[in-house]
Write a structure and sequence with these properties.
Helices cover about 45% and strands about 20% of the residues. Strands 3-2-1-4-5 form a 5-stranded parallel β-sheet, sandwiched between helices. The longest helix is centred in the N-terminal third of the chain and has 12 residues. This is Universal stress protein. Belongs to the universal stress protein A family. It holds the Pfam family Usp.
Amino acid sequence: MSIETVVLAVGTEDEERTERLAREAVSVAEPADAEVVLTHVFDDAEFKRVRAKLGVNEDSEGSTPDAVAERHTTTRALAKALSEAGVRYSVRGAVGDLAAEVTETAGRVGADRVVVGGRQRSPTGKAVFGSVAQDILLSAPCPVTFVRQTAA
């Protein structure tokens, strides 16, 4: 199976994983000359906070989730790494549930792979707190690569 499109899920907690996420996305996309769709999903409060921090008026053109995602530090760091590796990419922003938005985007763009970061949890931790990565693994319309956060 040829890989043409890779969705790279980006969320609030991924600032600490940008280098590893970028490396994994490049390793999947580069050999196939695939496009990486950086999909940054904000919850409502975070979106408002980031938009305010960027000085973006909610009525301006720059207040869309796509525009805010393009200017977010984590997305810019990932975009820079992909660009330096010669990997084509685009940025999509969304506000809502991370797992749902990522799986919906993967379906809409016809993704061949989703790359998602996360941290290792005990079985009890997963049951009590849930796991966005686990939801994506179970719901994505294509294979998912999980990039685990390294221990500090």
